[in-house]
Every structure is written in structure tokens, then in C-alpha cells.
Amino acid sequence: MLLIYCPYCEEERSELEFRHGGDAHIARPTNIADITDEEFQDYFFLRDNPKGLIFERWRHIHGCGRFFNAARDTVSDKFVMSYKAGEPKPNLSGEPTATEKTVETYEATEGTAK
Amino acid sequence: MADQALRKAPLAGRHGGSAGARVTPAAAATRLSLRAGEDAIGTLSLAFGLELPRRPKTSASVSGRHALWLGPDEWLLIDENGTDLMGIASGVSALHSATDVSHRNTAILVSGPDAAGAIASACPLDLGNTIFPVGAAARTVLGKIEIVLFRSGEEDYRVECWRSFSPYAFGLLAEGAEDAGL
Ligand SMILES: [Zn+2]
């Protein structure tokens, strides 16, 4: 079972208690009435969907109920860290990211299982 | 005889469990969903006669009245003596939100040496003695529903759930109690 650290409960809890809330640190334009349709589309609909490190909003909906942010590796599904909503985006540029080779999948182990 | 609506408890008459873990419907109680900011905690604690807990997964209990920490500004208050908690809240002028959930919730008591095992059959929370000691409380899940779990004694747990989900919760816990005893 995947465990996620909740910065408000201050401990790791089961993924069953959490809900994903989309990308974090998306700033709403302050001049929302002035921007073009294309700029609005960029802000509102378009996401990077990176392979590797991503910053996301998560909600501990079946626990303390709080929204918080987390850095997750989209290849390994590893949660690198989580932090309270409103806190600045941490600099994790030195953090090693996973490659497909570091991830154990059913398909990868199936052939060698005896 | 006058026509009179009879109130029927959602789990009336049910019993289950095993020699190691008894599963019983809890008696009726009054309950409050309480939300308040840091500055109102002191006043509310005085009014309710117990210190509202500020740490995750903790609770405070005074003679049948319990305050369970659910979130940084959220508590579930339970009064087993049926005291009018809304009446107390309405006398507090400090900014807060109180909602009577006495009849939204019902509770199931699980007790005995295998009680933790019975609950763990459907609940992902770590129920070990150091991480979930007597007095610990948390909102979590049981199977497919949300519950609030409160450890009221060494071998005693109170499972609070929404009343319409209670037959499901009761069935799961009764099954878990039988499995935990194997
Ligand atoms: Zn939490």
C-alpha cells in the first residue's frame, strides 16, 4: 500500500484516505478579464504532464480534510516530499528522478519469476 | 392510543462478533461537528468543560463527553449522556461553526483482545499501541466508507459512521471479528 505523508497529520497515512487535486502552483492571472482566449486556455486547461518530478495538490479528504502540496515522481510514483498549502515550491532540482529501469513492473518481473 | 412516531435506532437488535471481539451498537448520544479558529479554542473549551485537543489524532474526555481532533480546526464532539451540545455552543459568542450531527452518525463498539484485528480487517490505519494509544482518534476509512475511529480503552474502540452506512459497517466488523479470532 502506498503511504503518503500528510503535513497536517504529521505522519504517513494510506493512499486510500487521499484524493488527487491536479497540478500545484498554478497562479491565476490577476488581469483575468484582459487576457486573450489563448492565454486563458494556457492557464486554465493546459498542463505539462511531465515524465519525472511533478508538483501536485493532494487532499487528505478521509483524514484531516486538508489540501496540501506534494512532489511526486510520475515514473516511480514515489512521493519525494509533501508540504502545507501556501508554502513556497521547494527546489528539488538536485533530486534524482526515476527511469523505467528503476521501476519494478509486473511485466518486467514476470519473465524471470520461477 | 395516539399515533406516535417511534424512533428506531439504525442498528437496533443487532449483535455479532466473536469470543475475541464483541461488536455491539452503541447507545444513542448527542454529537456536534465543531469548526473553530485558534482564537476561539479557549472559550469553546471552557464552555464544553474539556480542553479541545490541538494535536493530530488526539482526544479529550470528561465523564462521557469526548472531543476528537479531526483536523487543524475541526472536532467531533460526542456526549454519551445526551447533553444538549448545541445549547452549549449557542451560548458561545466567539466565532465558530457548530452543526448537530447526533442523528447523522451512529456508533459501533468493538471490544475484546481481538478488537484491533477486527477493525484492521477493513481499515488501513496503523492501530499499534505506540502510534494509536488509548485516547487516539482519527477520521479514516473502513472498507468503502468513511469512519471516525476512537480508542476508548485498552481493548475498546468506538467506530462512528453515517447511519445509512451502519449496516455495512456492522457487517464488515462482525466478519472481521470472526476472522481475527481464527
Ligand atoms: Zn491529514
UniProtKB/TrEMBL annotation, chain A:
Residues 86-114 are annotated as: Disordered. Transmembrane segments: none annotated. This is Sarcosine oxidase subunit delta. GO terms for molecular function: sarcosine oxidase activity. One of its GO terms (biological process) is tetrahydrofolate metabolic process. It comes from Shinella granuli. It comes from the Bacteria. InterPro entries: SoxD (IPR006279), SoxD_sf (IPR038561). Pfam families: SoxD (PF04267).
UniProtKB/TrEMBL annotation, chain B:
GO terms for molecular function: sarcosine oxidase activity. GO terms for biological process: sarcosine catabolic process. Pfam families: SoxG. Residues 1-22 are annotated as: Disordered. InterPro entries: SoxG, SoxG_het, TrmE/GcvT-like. Gene3D superfamilies: Heterotetrameric sarcosine oxidase, Probable tRNA modification gtpase trme, domain 1. NCBIfam families: soxG (TIGR01375). This is Sarcosine oxidase subunit gamma. It comes from Shinella granuli. The lineage of its organism: Bacteria, Pseudomonadati, Pseudomonadota, Alphaproteobacteria, Hyphomicrobiales.
